[in-house]
Amino acid sequence: MSDSRNPALVTWDFALARQGTRTVKDLIDDVLEHWRVELPDQASVQIELIKRIARTFVLIEVPLAKVLTQFKLTRAEYDVLTALRTIGEPYQLRPTDLTARLLLTSAGTAKVTRHLAQLGLVSREPDATDARSAWIRLTPEGILTASEVIATCVAAQVASLAAVESGTLQRAADAMREVLVAIGDRAPQSRTPQSPQ
């Protein structure tokens, strides 16, 4: 007896079967069921991955946004403070390195670092080896603030994933590393050299 159901839905059923028994669907499962009916040619596994990444980002941004509001910082300012704090002493990077690391525009980086300087959290230091460049460095207050806000934000984000088993988290992290490397997002060959002290 032939199966008269929509071919897109049949394909979706087979895809679920290959993944093993799954009794609970997420929001993206529901979204993609509609895609497979209305836009079957575009409902690829690539789109499924992209939508799940986007959805995960939205969900973990909620607790992060609440913390940043308490500290009166924007997400871009938090990212800059984090990049500088985690690079290690003397906690400095060139503006071009910040732009590359954070996927900001040059103008965006300048705007963020200028505001952080007004808050007394970073300073702009001349580069002794290149008169055309400079270093963005955390001030002593910036180091303390960055450490506090990072700890608070990390705690909030970790709490948002508390229901996920550690093995699942590690497999997801490993799989995303493979994806990022495959699309060209590789680590730099060496750490950014620091200026002489």
In brief, what are we looking at here?
This protein is mostly helical. The chain has helices at residues 7-18, 27-38, 45-71, 75-86, 95-102, 106-118, 140-160, 166-182; strands spanning 92-93, 122-126, 134-138.
Explain what the structure shows.
By secondary structure, this protein is mostly helical. It has a domain at 62-182: Winged helix-like DNA-binding domain superfamily/Winged helix DNA-binding domain (Arc Repressor Mutant, subunit A). The chain is 62% helix and 6% strand. It has eight helices and three strands; from the N terminus they run ααααβααββαα. It has a three-stranded antiparallel β-sheet with strand order 1-3-2. Strand 2 and strand 3 (134-138) form a beta hairpin. Helix 4 packs across helix 7 and helix 5 packs across helix 6.
